[in-house]
Specification:
The complex is a heterodimer. Chain A is α/β, with parallel strands linked by helices. Chain A is built from 13 helices and nine strands. Chain A has a nine-stranded parallel sheet with strand order 5-4-3-2-1-9-8-7-6. In chain A, strand 6, helix 9 and strand 7 form a beta-alpha-beta unit. In chain A, helix 3 packs across helix 12 and helix 11 packs parallel to helix 13. The two termini of chain A are 33 Å apart. Helices cover 45% and strands 19% of the residues of chain B. Chain B contains 17 helices and 14 strands. Chains A and B meet through helix 3, helix 5 and strand 6 of A and strand 2, helix 1, helix 8, strand 11 and strand 12 of B.
């Protein structure tokens, strides 16, 4: 059984919702990433999403754009990202790692070659933002053959017919984009998310993770009601950015992320809000 | 039907190029646009409406002018200019924005967004929006806003909001990123007017179709002037809309040679250029697969051209296809040669070209020099150069 399948099965058995934090690989600097991933896992992550930096991240809002820029200053490449995953795997063979990024770095390496190298490094799933099902069918074909789950996105604008095409390709889980907008944007409406996720559930047994626009414990809690897992990116990266600008960059960052993760964890577990004081 | 009518296929592919590499959120409006365009393309009422706008508002047909003194300097074939610089707003961009504007109106979209580099597409879009009474937001890199300050003012006078783009290289590529972020955020009511034969399908096709009026007119005018077709067509290529607009209706004429001219900036060897067809590798950016300036890790490289309109790391997917096919030859002209072309055309013909088509001038003169006086070379003079006077003056002072 794949790490992703096992992860979601265990969550279901325990009646819990998953928390999936997102980091951009190499932000604020390449040496920090593996340590930050371990810190996220030990502070409550069920799986981690690792962003592959790209020069033109056009689905991302300013927070993740800057993260890509900070990583690219250090020349972080897809090959470097795979090396980080390999290093992470040396101490954690259990937590699923999903790469998230744009098509061109993978296209440049070649999808088949990438899939083999990613599988060997210990990557579990790959989510390519600019790869709708029309293109993904052919392009991601080498992924499952290598043992990598291609993870597709569904959006509020996705029709029922398109959802069928998406579900034919996506594996591991389906990523539902909670808003029409870029990552980190406002306007998240949990009721709207629930309305869109219900028909997806009716058509598939695959887990559904919801991301884009989840900013804090309360929005994570609201979204967790209808999702199997909640993805949080920009909110955590904002914390990294605040520390990156300081002279003592690394100092305190891990602690700040742990505190933030604990809050998010409490939100996802339904321990926040009125129940108060439990985290 | 001809070569052009066969392309792209259902998936928006030109061979391996093109396609629709966009986020899932954008697929709904893209499919909606594809369907609307397929309906209106064959609708005589829409075509009549477009033709009337092109005639009475844009000022078409534009003349085909024989540049006799320039021809004499080249010392060979006769050189003709297709005068897109004489259109309303002074560049070929308006052919496309009027077409897309009418499309937007038919689709009930009230808000128009666009990216711009040199400002010509931004001005043409803002003009169309004013003409049709639509809201308009233009994204423009701050570096380009500095280079093209007059066009920024023009857009604002036309009622458009010009949004400065500070990210990345602060030029056309980044303006396009930002326009796509706007589109994904305002997907229900917004129509994205792409200015070149780039982006996800159906844009490369519909921009080509709207610009093909250039080539259709040029065919008829060449028949009148020469009694036959020209021997060679020359056009500058950034994204490549003026080039495809001219080339498209001639692609099935095997005796008509075609040369696309990319910007070599400081020279191909310097790495500071904007010539993906000459020195790039196929990749995926802004919704389609095409030749691209990228590094070995698939990161998009910065570009340089004196001409803001050519300063783009990608190129329309159909150009990539035509390059591989060998149907069009692609050459490069650097900043210095383009400036010489700018001066030469101005001094010999009294026609001030934009820096973009100024790249086509030296390439056409080289070619004409190799041909005989009974042959003809046709340059697409895609825009006027008034917007570039400050840039040219700055370079001259600096040299």
């Amino acid at each position: 059984m794949s790490r992703l399948d096992r992860c979601f099965r265990e969550l279901a058995e325990e009646g819990r919702k998953g928390l999936i934090p997102f980091l951009t690989a190499g932000d604020p600097e390449p040496g920090a990433t593996v340590g930050l991933l371990h810190a996220l896992v030990s502070s409550g992550a069920d799986a981690v999403e690792l962003g592959v930096p790209f020069s033109d991240p056009l689905a991302d809002g300013p927070v993740i754009q800057r993260a890509s820029e900070r990583a690219l200053v250090h020349g972080v490449s897809l090959t470097d990202v795979l090396a980080m995953v390999r290093e992470f795997r040396a101490d954690d063979d259990r937590t699923p790692v999903v790469l998230m990024g744009y098509a061109n770095p993978i296209e440049r390496m070649g999808p088949a070659r990438f899939a083999e190298r990613a599988a060997a490094a210990g990557v579990d799933g790959v989510l390519t933002v600019d790869m709708p099902p029309e293109e993904a069918g052919e392009w991601t074909r080498p992924f499952p053959e290598a043992g990598i789950d291609p993870i597709l996105l569904a959006a509020p604008t996705t029709s029922g017919q398109r959802l069928e095409a998406i579900l034919e390709i996506t594996r591991g889980f389906l990523y539902y984009v909670s808003i029409t907008g870029v990552t980190g944007a406002g306007g998240l409406d949990a009721e709207d998310v629930a309305e869109h996720v219900a028909p997806i559930r009716a058509r598939t047994d695959l887990p559904v993770a919801v991301g884009f626009g989840v900013r804090d414990a309360s929005s994570a809690a609201a979204v967790a009601n209808s999702a199997d897992a909640v993805v949080v990116g920009s909110a955590l990266i904002r914390t990294i950015a605040e520390h990156a600008e300081r002279a003592d960059a690394g100092q305190g960052l891990e602690g700040a992320l742990r505190r933030q993760m604990a809050e998010l964890r409490a939100g996802v577990d339904g321990l926040g809000g009125e129940e108060g004081g439990s985290g | 039907m001809g070569m052009m009518a066969d392309r792209p296929n259902e998936r928006g592919r030109y061979g391996v190029y093109g396609g629709r590499f966009v986020s899932e959120t954008l697929m709904a409006p893209i499919l909606e646009l594809t369907e609307a365009y397929h309906q209106l393309r064959d609708d005589p009422a829409f075509q009549a409406e477009l033709a009337a706008e092109l005639r009475s508002y844009v000022g078409r047909p534009t003349p085909l002018y024989e540049a006799k003194r320039l021809s004499a300097e080249a010392g060979g074939a006769r050189i003709f200019l297709k005068r897109e610089d004489l259109t309303h707003t002074g560049a070929h961009k308006i052919n496309n924005t009027i077409g897309q504007g009418l499309l937007a109106r038919h689709m009930g979209k009230r808000r128009i967004i666009a990216e711009t580099g040199a400002g010509q597409h931004g001005v043409a879009t803002a003009t169309m929006a004013a003409r049709l009474g639509l809201d308009c937001v233009i994204y423009m890199g701050v570096e380009d806003m500095r280079r093209q300050a007059v066009n920024v003012y023009r857009m604002r006078l036309l009622g458009a909001e010009v949004v400065p783009v500070e990210s990345g290289s602060r030029t056309l590529k980044d303006a396009m990123n930002e326009a796509m972020r706007d589109w994904v955020t305002h997907v229900a009511d917004t129509f994205y007017v792409i200015g070149s034969v780039a982006g996800p399908h159906p844009y490369p096709m519909l921009v080509r179709d709207f610009q093909s009026v250039i080539g259709r007119e040029a065919r008829e005018q060449a028949q009148e002037a020469l009694g036959r077709l020209p021997d060679c067509l020359v056009a500058c290529v950034g994204g490549g809309s003026n080039a495809l607009g001219l080339f498209g209706p001639f692609l099935d004429d095997p005796d008509v040679a075609m040369v696309g001219v990319e910007a070599a900036g400081h020279g191909l060897a310097s790495g500071e250029h904007a010539a993906p067809l000459a020195a790039g590798i196929p990749g995926i950016l802004h919704g389609s697969r095409s030749y691209l300036m990228q590094d070995e890790n698939g990161q998009i490289l910065g570009t340089h051209s004196l001409s803001a309109g050519l300063d783009y790391p990608g190129v329309g997917p159909e150009h990539s296809y035509l390059k591989d096919l060998g149907r069009v030859r692609y050459e490069t002209v650097d900043d210095r040669e383009a400036l010489a072309g700018f001066r030469q055309l101005t001094a010999t013909e009294g026609i001030l070209p934009a820096l973009e088509p100024a790249h086509a001038v030296p390439a056409a003169m080289r070619l004409a020099g190799e041909l005989s006086p009974d042959q003809a070379v046709l340059i697409n003079l895609s825009g006027r150069g008034d917007k570039d006077i400050d840039t040219v003056a700055e370079v001259e002072e600096g040299s």
